[in-house]
Amino acid sequence: MQDLVLLPFADYWWAYGAFVVAVLGIIAFDLGALAKPDATVTVRQAAIRSVVFVLLALGFALGLHQFLLHELPTRPELAGLAHATLARDATLEFLAGYVVEYALAIDNVFVFVAVFSYFAVPAQYQQKVLFYGILGALAFRALFIALGSVLMQYHFVVVLFGVFLIATGLKILFLPEKPLDPANNPVIRLVRRLVPVTPDFRGDALWLRIDGKLWVTPLFVALAFIEFSDVIFAVDSVPAIFALTNEPFIVFTSNVFAILGLRSLFFVLQSMVQAFRFLKYGLGLILLFVGAKMVWLNEAFDGKFPIVWSLAIIGAIIGTSILFSVLFRPRAAASPETR
């Protein structure tokens, strides 16, 4: 049963295509109708958009469930199976994957804040960098997922990914976090070596020609760093969701919905990233859990750890880490008068 794929790409390529078209439409509407050029996004606007994207994901989950309820009984190879249970489990797998990806996306926000601060990116230009960054993230995730869906057919790869996630989780929990250092990032050094960089911003331009020679702006360098960071995050996040489901369609759609909400999430959380100081430990525990699923738990439960339990455990970890962050806020440094 663990090898059963309900929505194989060969048979449901049209569903992938329709989803991609819908996503491109959402992005175009969000950018064209809702975002004004050079406008600074307010926290209220970003919060509303974040809620809308979450509601879209929940609506998609409901639609997926209804589609599977009607589609699965028409599949001869699924005769004799509990179609309602398959549809329910697939929907819960989407929700669990979405929650994990959304939580891991918050880690991206911390990087965005550090990058924009390091490069002193004006607030009115941050939206453009995030927009192109998210487009790049969608392309990279699609590539990683396509590759992962092939590799995950081999059991030893599943175990290797599981061990990697466990090691990453332990690293997050027990090793001190290294400060972000864009100046020594290999991608940034490569960009500076290949093309000259203007000393200051030129509006929202990513590149321009000066005396016939191509120059890039600090905005382009910031974008390059963000794209590089997302590739690193994808190495963790894509195997993590494959631990929850072997459905490439669910892996792809849950990833996309999490990324779609990332731009709005940044503007909501950018001023309060330090408030979620225990969230990284929650993410470490989640990676430990999904790694354990790939290495041991799925086999221990006859091929598949119950998705209801997975969703409950992931929700409890995230909820607890957020609760601890709220209850145990970092103490402000004492002022000279109070010392």
Structural account:
- There is one protein chain.
- Strand 1 and strand 2 form a beta hairpin.
- The protein is built from 11 helices and 2 strands.
- The protein is mainly α and 339 residues long.
- It has one domain (9-174, 236-327).
- It has a two-stranded antiparallel ribbon.
Topology:
Elements: H1 9-34, H2 43-71, H3 83-118, H4 123-151, H5 155-174, H6 186-194, E1 207-210, E2 213-216, H7 218-242, H8 248-260, H9 262-269, H10 279-300, H11 307-327
Antiparallel strand pairs: 1-2
Helix pairs in contact: 1-8, 2-3, 2-8, 2-9, 3-7, 3-8, 3-9, 3-11, 4-7, 4-8, 5-10, 6-7, 10-11
How does the helix and strand content classify structurally? Answer: mainly alpha
The helix content, as a percent range, equals over 70%
| Number of H/I helices | 11
**Counted beta strands:** 2
Beta fraction: under 5%
Determine Rg (CA atoms, Å): 21 Å
Shape category: globular
Distance between the termini: 64 Å
Total domain count: 1
Q: Please summarize the sheet with the most strands.
A: 2 strands, antiparallel
